[in-house]
Amino acid sequence: MGSSVKLNNGQKMPLLGLGCWQAPGDEVAAAVEAALLAGYRHIDTAYNYLNEDGVGRGIKAALASGKVKRSDIFVVTKLPMIGMQAGKVEKYLKKSIKALGLDYIDLYLVHAPLGFAERSETDPSSVTVYFQQLKMREVCKKHNIAITAYAPLASPGRKVLYEKRGVKIELPDLLNNPVVRLVAEKHNRTAAQVLLRFLVQQDIIVIPKSTNAGRIKQNGDIFNLQAGRAGHGSPAFPEPGRGWQKLHHARIPWR
Ligand code: A2P
């Protein structure tokens, strides 16, 4: 399994990225630096996250260590809804580049677009073991569009945020799903690693957010696993589809 996917414009996009939603300034700076030093090569932020300056500081610190080069890093940010007019795109793009303290970004996404563009390089979608989006993935494959699974852990952070605002939402607790936990125990891994590995081994890009150094490291340690079958040499993660059929593919009620 490779550690990146080739986009339809020829660029390579790393399968593992650090999500930065709900990570404020100084916290995100430390998280981005830790992630880059732990081997992440993709950072996902947005104008709307109000933390591009912190993300930029983290990137700068990692570059200053001499262990990472700018050309090795894939930085994604997003056009805010207030910039969704042809005449405003350049202005917002420049604002983001400046806040990040970079000369360029690698991918500029439209935040929360309506509809589906055949010529997109990547489609940010909610894909988890619970909500595998097989039909949408078929369409993307046909058009050579890579998929980024945001909230690949089913967004425990969203639940906390909504509850703080007095809104109760039902989200599947994938980190405590009995099947996921069983697979994790069997392979001596955490539930989060199982959820992430399940996606990357199908060439789905994942961007788990964490500002906790231990969890950042843990979420990045998903490539040195052998996908295979029990009893055939390497201990093993199930191949896509195998061992996962019993999971209930419920629709997550936030889209
Ligand atoms: P933390 O930053 O404290 O690690 P989102 O909800 O936006 O998808 O973000 C992921 C959420 O899951 C965050 O709240 C993050 O909290 C938490 N998280 C990230 N990695 C792990 C992990 N390995 N185990 C448990 N929780 C995690």
From TrEMBL:
Gene3D superfamilies per UniProt: NADP-dependent oxidoreductase domain (3.20.20.100)
Residues reported in the UniProt entry to bind substrate: H111
Domain spans labelled NADP-dependent oxidoreductase: 16-113, 131-225
Molecular functions per Gene Ontology: oxidoreductase activity
Signal peptide limits: none
Active site: Y49
Pfam families the UniProt entry points to: Aldo_ket_red (PF00248)
Domain of life: Eukaryota
Residue numbers marked as site, Lowers pKa of active site Tyr: K78
PANTHER family assigned: ALDO/KETO REDUCTASE
Protein name (Swiss-Prot/TrEMBL): 9,11-endoperoxide prostaglandin H2 reductase
Biological classification of the source: Eukaryota, Metazoa, Ecdysozoa, Arthropoda, Crustacea
